[in-house]
Amino acid sequence: MKQNAKQSGFMSWLDKRTGIEGLKHEALNEPIPGGARWAYVFGSGLLYILLSQIVTGVFLAMYYVASADHAHTTIEYITKQVTAGGFIRSLHSYGSSAMVVTLVVHLGQTYFFGSYKGRREILWISGLMLFALVIGMAFTGYLLPWDEKAYFATAVGTNIAGEVPIIGDWLKALMRGGTEMGTLTLSRFFVAHVFLIPAGIFAFVGAHVYLFRKAGSAGPISEDPYEPKQKSEQFYPKQVIMDIVFATILVGALGLLSYLSPVELGPKANPADTQFLPRPEWYYLPIFQWLKYWSGAYAIVGIVVIPGIVAGFLVALPFMDKSLERRPWKRPIASFSFATILCGLIFLGWQSGHEDGADAAVAKQLAKQATETEAFMKTPFKSETMGPAMLIAAPLSPEAAKGKKLFTDNSCDGCHGDNGQGTENGPKLIGVSVKFDHDELVKVLRNPTQKMRDGNMDPVEIPDDDLALLIAFLNTLK
Amino acid sequence: MIGSHVTNVHQTLMIENSEVSKSGSNTSGSLDHPPPTGRRTFLGWVIGLGTVSVAGLLSIPLVRFALDPLTRAATSTGWSDLGPTSDFSETTAPQKRTISITQTDGWRTVLSEKSIYVVKKASGELTVLTAICPHLGCSVKYNESNNQFKCPCHNGAFTTEGKLVSGPPPRDMDNLEMRIQDGHLQVRYQTFRQLVKSKEVLA
Ligand code: FES
Predict the structure, then answer these.
(1) B67 and B88 in a common domain
(2) Whether residues A350 and A411 fall in one domain
(3) Which residues of B touch A35 (CB under 8 A)?
(4) CATH number at residue A219
(5) pLDDT of A132 above 50
(6) A88 touches chain B (CB under 8 A)
(7) Can you give the residue range of the structural domain that contains B29?
């Protein structure tokens, strides 16, 4: 008893400071007209996937480096070396697919159930914005591993942006950070993927959830979207449990998939490769296929006009359709047009795979790419070797090599560093041969200036032949 | 048109209600009959516990992922080969050698070259000294003319075996861990703290 009183005392203290009881009430006692249903789990399912994407994304960033030099190595390191690295990367990658699928279900359901009706225009539009942002996340995230398919798929994707009339070239250069794909492209995509688009997603998720709570749950398709009349049930506990069960199934399925079939990484992007056939992530295939049909002067129709009409239609929908009717079979035009688009996309996706299979040359190249990816996954991780250029690069000429020996034997390296890179005790020698010609070098080495002597530089007392060898070595320091 | 739609909606609504509810008033949008408080609290605990255990399960790979570098921290520089011991049996003066050492740093491997001296002591034993001066880290050089190591920076001087003779260095030259494997002399490169009296390994 005492314990209880104490606890409630603490809770009331906390409530006075934070208003947590009110928040809890607000969050849990939301009325759902018609009662809790499994049909309503997709919105909160998306929140759970988002949470998983954020957490796995942050962890991946512990090892990832966004630079054309290192991106692929770091992803390879994550995949092949780091404990659970392949698993977490797979969770993140499959999570993006799950996000797109669940989002399409959520959007389709809102559309077919007419849940956008009844003062829900802004709620609907914020959802469309989130759809666009998630598609943007998928597009920018795809490049980050910098393997062959990432590089070439993004080259195609940015080329498409280049086809937009008037601003196309500018847009493409803006995305790429120049006319060509390169390390700046990667930096830009990284910034968009981890800073800019997530900021938009946070803002719109906040708005979406707030507006949803403000408008209230729309209830079943038999419900009046303006003035709900059916007996309502509170969000807690039944709907909460359904949402959590769905989220657990989703996360469990993603975990199982990631564990059993980890995402692969292909060989590092080779921009000089002219054979590579880029194929985007599966959910982009319908659009990829769609664009094949629009080339030359008509490209603008396929890239800008038709998608623009579809987007405009979706945005305008809640403003145009004000009827109270929500049952899809009583709204034939709306249902039919959406079903057509959906079936069209599915058909395009199927067509894309079918065409690849039907063309022997394409099928062969794609099979080759798959084999290369598999082979790459089997090769052990090889770290990037760094160090003085000469240790990695071509060996020195015999003279320079002898000169290098003189350099260390005479302890020049003590102050000027192993390879003339300089230390706190002496200046760097890289580039001296550019500043001074051979004779000038001989002069200062034999007879250092007062300033050099003050810095503890002793005259070099070795035979003339050796001095020439030493200078031959200095000439290699560039 | 709209009127008839509304009627339809209401008809369905009635069916819906008779299916879903057996009790309760029909006041629109009211929060009727939440489960008793005791059940709500119990359910809250079940949900909380379930969520925490799922989250806990999921965080295992995340924690292992984040702690991965700690499991690798123990890697030290390996052994560098200096060639057959016979190479050093004839000599009396210290022999300078350059070894390349490789250090693993996450996804990169860092190569560098280090100078060491192989010394044959009066007792005939071999020992390996690092060329880095224990004073401020300059490269110590062997001077054949007076059989002494001399540091060019502040004139620290050491005997052939690395014992401090004069100058600012706080201690003798540092010797490195060595072993003989299949007749080859091998050394493990390390660096030591400067400016202190006793030898302390840094890396
Ligand atoms: S660094 Fe060697 S004597 Fe000062």
Answers:
(1) no
(2) no
(3) 20-21
(4) 1.20.810.10
(5) yes
(6) yes
(7) 2-71
- Could you give phi then psi for residue A114, rounded to 5 degrees? 60, 30
CA distance B179 to chain A (A): 25
**Domain count of chain A?**
2
CB contact under 8 A, B66 and A325: no
Percentage of chain A exceeding pLDDT 90: 53
The pair of three-digit structure tokens given for residue A85, joined into one six-digit string: 């690295």
> How long is chain A?
478
Atom of ligand 1 nearest to the CA of B169: 3
Residue A243 three-state SS: helix
Give the type of residue at B32: D
* A264, A370, A424, A425 from B153: Cα distances, Å: 54, 60, 12, 8
pTM beyond 0.90: the answer is no
Minimum-distance ligand 1 atom for the alpha carbon of B156: 3
A368-389 tens-digit pLDDT: 999 999 999 999 998 888 876 6
A352 and A409 share a domain? Answer: no
Q: Which of A360, A376, A406 is the last residue of a domain?
A: A360
A410: nearest CB among B15, B71, B141: B141
Residue A368 amino acid letter = K
Average model confidence (pLDDT) across chain A: 89
A154 band by pLDDT with thresholds 50, 70 and 90: very high
With respect to residue B166, please indicate whether it lies within any of the assigned structural domains.
yes
pLDDT, tens digit, 9 for 90 and up, residues A164-178: 888 999 999 999 999
Is the same domain home to B83 and B117?
Answer: yes
Return left, alpha or beta for A79; rule: phi > 0 is left, psi -120 to 50 is alpha, else beta: alpha
Which of A34, A241, A323 minimises the CB distance to B5? A323
Residue A90 touches partner B, C-beta closer than 8 Å:
no
Query: Based on the domain organization, do B148 and B171 belong to the same domain?
Result: yes
Which pLDDT score, from 0 to 100, does residue A391 have? 59
- B13 pLDDT higher than 60: no
- Please determine, for residue A338, whether its predicted confidence score (pLDDT) is greater than 50: yes
A–B interface: beta-carbon pairs under 8 A: 184
Domain carrying residue A246 = 21-360
- Residue at token pair 């339809």: B8
| A46 in contact with chain B, both atoms CB, cutoff 8 A | no
Strand order of the sheet with strand B79-84?
Answer: B79-84, B184-188, B177-181
pLDDT digits (tens, 9 = 90+) for A182-241: 999 999 999 999 999 999 999 999 999 999 999 988 888 888 888 888 888 888 888 999
Indicate whether B56 and B139 sit together in one domain. Answer: no
Q: Do B17 and A414 make contact, defined as CB atoms within 8 angstroms?
A: no
**Cα(A417)–Cα(A404) distance, rounded to whole angstroms?**
12
Of B40, B66, B108, the CB nearest to A62: B66
Q: Is A14 inside any structural domain?
A: no
pLDDT category at B27 given cuts 50, 70, 90 is: very low
Where is average pLDDT lowest: A44-48, A52-56, A118-122, A399-403? A399-403
Q: Inter-chain contact A231–B26, Cβ cutoff 8 Å?
A: yes
Phi and psi at residue A296, to the nearest 5°: 60, -130
**Which CATH number does the domain housing residue A428 bear?**
1.10.760
User: Which residue, B50, B71, B92, sits at the end of a domain?
Assistant: B71
Q: Is A283 helix (H, G, I), strand (E, B) or coil?
A: helix
Residue A345 placed within a domain: yes
Q: What is the CATH number of the domain that holds B141?
A: 2.102.10.10
